[in-house]
TrEMBL record:
Subunit structure: Homodimer.
Entry function: ATPase required for the post-translational delivery of tail-anchored (TA) proteins to the endoplasmic reticulum. Recognizes and selectively binds the transmembrane domain of TA proteins in the cytosol. This complex then targets to the endoplasmic reticulum by membrane-bound receptors, where the tail-anchored protein is released for insertion. This process is regulated by ATP binding and hydrolysis. ATP binding drives the homodimer towards the closed dimer state, facilitating recognition of newly synthesized TA membrane proteins. ATP hydrolysis is required for insertion.
Binding-site list for ATP: 27-34, 240, 267
Name of the protein described by the UniProt record: ATPase ASNA1 homolog
Keywords from the named record: ATP-binding, Cytoplasm, Endoplasmic reticulum, Hydrolase, Nucleotide-binding, Transport
Length: 663
């Protein structure tokens, strides 16, 4: 029997009468926001009510619709039954959401001393607060009674950790219940001593009931997410190696979570056989880029080195191509791209090579702009210069959960292991920090190790401390960071302040309950004779405190630290770059270099050959996607690159028609 091919559109998803939850995700820069927004528009034409939710810290749906959204559902102009909201899934909001939920369920039993006690209990299991925030967010949205909810998610690594929250709860709830049985009464005593009152029943009993209620909520959400009739995930990719690789990882992880995935959108496909002629396509895309390139020059040329880099016919993978790209960002064979520059700052990153006091160099920006390529190329140039000047080796580190360094260098770099020497370079090393491994080297006890890999943001919080200790112990003359997309990178850069806050919280918690812990005696030690949780945590954290303080001081020193912003000449990237520059200024981190990547040169004499070469490269990966995901099991939707930006409702409707097979 021959399997029938599924149609190459998302029409079956839109026509489904049972779907309630639609997640849209993939690597940064592949068009997740455009796809999720367009899909929401299509669904709204079929459903009674649709809600589009952005959980990406970058929050681009406001830009896609050209309309400002907030944390509360707001009607999309021109569509009565489509609303949108932008939310932060963070630890900060978890207790507020939990208090509101508990207050409704338990009434007076949830006395004023209950929430501080619950907060302290939850903090004993790192990461559970973010998981609670996401679980309660989903429950809150479910209570709004929209027909369908579409999630515009953060890039792959962070999205997977959020969707893994049921796994975290499964491991964490029994641990919290154990802590409640041991410490719940004690926390209640603390509340009474402080003059607070509580309900008529013992606090640990109330806490136990609340945990059971929370567990029931999570089970209801999990049951829905694991029901293919109610929930599905749409993977968005572009026909390039890193995106295809990340899509395969995403599909496998979603399968392990038992979340349905059978729709794949291949975006930005160059198809010269139909549609807009090659010369016209080149001119249209070049004109769009020129508009934003002028904006970048107006914003930054007076104070920044603005480095303009052309799009290449080949992928930048392996030593030879990285070295070639490195020459371009160092100013070799510079192109004007039709602009005359009067800036006193050279359009290259050579200034970073010449400043040999630099120790920390961060490369960051929106997803999909070429951060990994730029950081690898910069690291190779640094390594060559430092070797010639008898300085120490250079280390490049990936803090992006996607970990693309191995792919860029075409060399296996073991996550969480020791620095790997890069082949073909005398003094260049690389590391990919694995969140789970990093967390287990810092966080005490098995109960924390069990949940570490599901902690959103653990890579920013814990791996940075591991990096700081490593750099201090080894003689690296410079460290280049290939960072996660903007929102998560800003968390990493804010690490010293965050660390101080964590220390204060742990210290206050230990001071409050240490006398009672001591009164309970040796029962607090585990079977291996290890000290209690708080003492163990303090011992580990105190070891890091001085290192992190030194790193924080260095990060604010422009002689030793700088940030390279990487962008492409498109609206969302320019907008996010400006946000990044402002945040860096607030954090007192030096930033004076901007790389504008993937530019089409309007003076290119052989436009057709360049487009043909890019199309041939893409076709290789389109074929690979079709081989990986048979049409008997997946809807593979190919979307051509367009001559205009997709912004505003009319163009989103047009893009949606391409997704769903309409015209």
């Amino acid at each position: 029997m021959v399997n029938e091919s599924l149609d190459s559109s998302l029409s079956s998803l839109v026509e489904s009468q049972t779907l309630q939850w639609v997640f849209v995700g993939g690597k940064g820069g592949v068009g997740k926001t455009t796809t999720s927004s367009s899909l929401a528009v299509s669904l709204a034409q079929k459903k009674e009510s649709v809600l589009l939710v952005s959980t990406d810290p970058a929050h681009n749906i406001s830009d896609a619709f050209d309309q400002k959204f907030s944390k509360d559902p707001t009607k999309v102009r021109g569509m009565e039954n489509l609303s949108a909201m932008e939310v932060e899934v963070s630890a900060d909001g978890s207790m507020r959401m939990l208090e509101a939920s508990v207050g409704q369920s338990f009434g007076e039993a949830a006395g004023p001393s209950l929430f501080p006690a619950l907060d302290e209990l939850i903090k004993m299991v790192p990461g559970i607060d973010e998981a609670i925030a996401f679980g309660l967010l989903v429950e809150t949205i479910r209570s709004m009674n929209y027909s369908t909810i579409v999630f515009d998610t953060a890039p792959t690594g962070h999205t997977l950790r959020l969707l893994g929250f049921p796994n975290l709860f499964e491991k964490a709830i029994p641990k919290i219940e154990e802590l409640n049985n041991r410490f719940g009464g004690m926390l209640g005593t603390l509340g009474s001593v402080s003059g607070m009152t509580q309900g008529s029943e013992p606090m640990n009993v109330t806490l136990g009931r609340m945990l059971k209620d929370l567990q029931d909520t999570v089970k209801q959400v999990t049951d829905q997410f694991q029901d293919p009739a109610k929930t599905t995930f749409v993977c968005v990719c572009i026909p390039e190696f890193l995106s295809v690789y990340e899509t395969e990882r995403l599909v496998q992880e979603l399968s392990s979570f038992k979340i349905d995935v059978k729709n794949i959108v291949i975006n930005q496909v160059i198809d010269l056989s139909k549609g807009i002629p090659a010369e016209a396509l080149f001119a249209a895309r070049s004109n769009i880029q020129m508009k934003y390139l002028k904006q970048i020059d107006e914003l930054y040329a007076e104070d920044f080195h603005v480095v303009k880099v052309p799009i290449l016919a080949e992928e930048i993978r392996g030593k030879d191509m990285i070295v070639e790209y490195s020459k371009m960002i160092m100013g070799e064979n510079q192109k004007s791209f039709g602009l005359s520059s009067t800036s006193e700052y050279a359009g290259s990153l050579a200034n970073l090579i010449e400043q040999r006091t630099l120790r920390w160099i961060f490369c960051g920006g929106k997803g999909g702009v070429g951060k990994t390529t730029t950081s690898c190329a910069l690291a190779t140039a640094l390594a060559e210069d430092r070797a010639q000047n008898n300085l120490g080796p250079v280390l490049i580190i990936s803090t992006d959960p996607a970990h693309n360094l191995s792919d860029a260098f075409k060399q296996r770099i073991s996550p969480g292991g020791d620095p790997t020497k890069i082949e073909g370079f005398e003094n260049l090393y690389a590391m990919e920090i694995e969140p789970q491994t990093a967390a287990e080297s810092v966080l005490p006890r098995e109960m924390l190790k069990d949940v570490a890999k599901f902690i959103p943001g653990v890579d920013e919080l814990v791996s940075f401390s591991q990096i700081a200790k490593l750099v201090k112990s080894m003689e690296f003359s410079a460290v280049v960071f290939d960072t996660a997309p903007t929102g998560h990178t800003l968390k990493l850069l804010n690490f010293p302040k965050l660390f101080e806050k964590v220390l204060e919280q742990l210290g206050a918690l230990k001071d409050r309950i240490d006398p009672l812990l001591q009164s309970l005696g040796p029962g607090l030690a585990d079977s291996a004779g290890n000290p209690d949780l708080f003492t163990a945590a303090n011992q580990n954290i105190d070891d890091l405190k001085q290192v992190v303080a030194e790193v924080g001081e260095q990060m604010r020193d422009s002689d030793r630290t700088t940030f390279v912003c990487v962008a492409i000449a498109e609206f969302l990237s320019v907008y996010e770059t400006e946000r990044l520059v402002q945040e860096l200024f607030t954090l007192e981190i030096d930033s004076r270099n901007i790389v504008v990547n993937q530019l089409l040169d309007p003076e290119e004499t052989d436009k057709l050959s360049l487009l043909k070469a890019r199309a041939a490269m893409q076709q290789k990966y389109v074929t690979q996607i079709e081989d990986l995901y048979p049409r008997s099991e997946f809807h593979i939707c190919k979307v051509p690159v367009r001559g205009e930006e997709i912004r505003g409702l009319d163009l989103l409707k047009s893009f949606a028609a391409g997704l769903t097979g309409g015209q």
